[in-house]
Description:
Blueprint: H1 3-7, E1 15-21, E2 24-29, E3 32-38, H2 41-52, E4 57-62, E5 73-79, E6 84-85, H3 86-89, H4 91-95, H5 99-121, E7 134-137, E8 140-143, H6 171-179, H7 188-204, H8 217-226, H9 241-250, H10 261-267
Antiparallel strand pairs: 1-2, 2-3, 3-5, 4-5, 6-7, 7-8
Helix pairs in contact: 5-7, 5-10, 6-8, 7-9
Amino acid sequence: MDRLITHLGLDTDQAKLLHDRRGTTVYRIGDLALKITDGLMAAREGEILKLLGTEFYRDHGWDGDDHGPDGDRSWLLLRWIDGATLWCALEPAHRSDSQATRSHALACTRDAAVALAELHAAGWAHGDLQPDHVLFEGDRTHLIDLACAQHPAVAVPPYVHRGGLAHTTAPEIAAAILASEEHITATPQADIWSLGASLWWSWTRTPPITYTDSATGRPGQLANIAALHRAPATARSWPFRVLEEIITACLAADPADRPTAKEIAASLAS
Length: 270
């Protein structure tokens, strides 16, 4: 049991470990979620959620000093979100074609686009949008894991961003990562690619990029993404014209040709 649970005055008897890998540990503690990360990323996410006035944000700080980054770890306390991820929400549409699954998939697409549009309207780019970072809770849709989010005019703890999950990384971001070791700027247009990639992946259970046999590890994946080795349309279980048109628009090679999140939401408003 992590000593931070006791330090924060939380109930150790209710603590359930959910995740512990790659420097990130997550507990569910009653109706709360506690994320602990090596370094500043949990606290960085907390700063962003607090600035956005996010309903499920509760508190954040640093291990050893709640007022500054004096420890080796940081933490974030959230209300537990009892919802389904985009991956889980689109699973019925992967299994079968019916009016009900089509309507549900389009409603989820609309709600995800609305949530992303709100983030973009506030001036932020998510930077790591993927199926597990969209949560549907009743009539509310949440974007989570905003540790990589960027705003051009808001100062939050800085770090060197090197992209998010490879499968949902936009080709221009993949190319920039491969071209240098410098900080990568997240953009709303790249988020739109990530939304389209997340929709395709969640619906078909196949990433939007076909990786060649020579694509080893993350660099190989990014090289295939940058080269736009698209997955074939036959990867889908069945034709779904409306959703496919949205995904195709999101996955436009030129970022300028992609719709905005607000435009996607408006196209599905009815």
